[in-house]
Amino acid sequence: MLALLIYYNGLQIPQRSLLTHLIHLESQLGDLSSAKVPSRLFKMPILFGSHRETAALNRYIETQRPYASYLPDNMDFVAKNNGLEKQDLKNILTKSRLIAVSVGFFAALPLCLPVDPRHRLCCPKMNPSRVFTPAGQVSWGGSCMALYNVESPGGYQLTGLTIPGCDILGSKPGYSLSRPWLFEDFDQVSFYEVEEGEYERQRKLWDSGRYVYEWEEVEFDMAEHNRLLADTADEVKNVRKKQKEAQDRMLAYEEELMAKWTKEKAEGKIPVDRVEELLKDPGIQVLRSPHNANLWRLKVAEGDRIVDGGMTVAVLEAMKLEICVPAGEELVGGRVEKVLVREGEVVGAGGELILVRKGGA
């Protein structure tokens, strides 16, 4: 579904008048069921199982959630969630045309649906969402394929890697400062599979400003598409039934894993009354988190001596940034009494990370 955002001055035109005018304009469009819409067909490389994608998933497992129905392989999950084999999913991505139904969100991210309704998939997003996604990542969430044009957080399942479709500086071929994005509504994308060496060759061309996208002017024929919808209606009904059965199984599995993970996190926490008791001790000092973030790495253990104010105690991760937390001069000479958090936990700004006993023996 396409959306149009309209800005208007409510002091100069009443909302009711604007709506009346918009409805009048829409009525003049006539029957669009047989319209032919200008479109561009992009032919893009896709790499499955890239080292960038694997690194992003490993980072997620280490810092955010150790296991889930969609781990360690997002593609395998998307396939199973739709009653398919992994190769079936690859075939859908490489033998279908996907049409952009929306372009927006962060850095002109295109949301696309397979033109053929038999190839339309559905899957949940990662929970929690990732703090890092590689640029050029092809992904699936809900019923749409999305292309992450820049490194960013995200929750869609990772299903391949292609060439990004955005140049913030507007200096690469096909871009400008006034139009630093590539895709428009109703553009179409078809992927062809490449090996990692070929992908890296093309990616280096893009990084260096020498990549030229392969595309052609085409039309999207609404009458032809409506005939496809009608001709495949019974087949699509069977596909949706198979998908629903698979999704019910995967949902039950995910709920089981989520309950297990939630329980493990709760069991690993130090009792609140014990923490409060230690905080009342005048010999105890607290090191707090400077930000809301994921705790990626702990660099100290209970009993360790703080020997330097610049000593890194923990490494946080927030919005794809690694943030080193130093001990600070006030803790020098102390000994770590209690570590209050574990790697992979989410910590709030000002939350206690470690307790240090001043001059601890």
Task: Give the topology, please.
Elements: H1 15-27, E1 36-46, H2 51-63, H3 74-81, H4 86-95, E2 98-104, E3 109-114, E4 130-133, E5 137-141, E6 144-148, E7 152-154, E8 157-161, E9 188-193, H5 196-207, E10 214-221, H6 222-231, H7 233-267, H8 272-279, E11 284-288, E12 293-298, E13 312-318, E14 321-326, E15 335-339, E16 346-347, E17 352-357
Parallel strand pairs: 1-9
Antiparallel strand pairs: 1-10, 2-3, 2-9, 3-6, 4-7, 5-6, 5-8, 11-17, 12-13, 12-16, 13-14, 15-17
Helix pairs in contact: 3-4
Biggest sheet layout: 8 strands, mixed
Number-wise, the strands total 17
Largest beta sheet: what is the strand line-up? 8-5-6-3-2-9-1-10
* Percentage of residues in DSSP E strands: 25-35%
Pattern of helices and strands: HEHHHEEEEEEEEHEHHHEEEEEEE
Round the Cα radius of gyration to an integer and report it. 26 Å
Mean pLDDT: 92
Oligomer: single chain
Q: How many H/I helical runs?
A: 8
Through-space gap between termini: 66 Å
Unreliable stretches: none
Helix content: 25-40%
Structural class: alpha+beta
Backbone shape = elongated
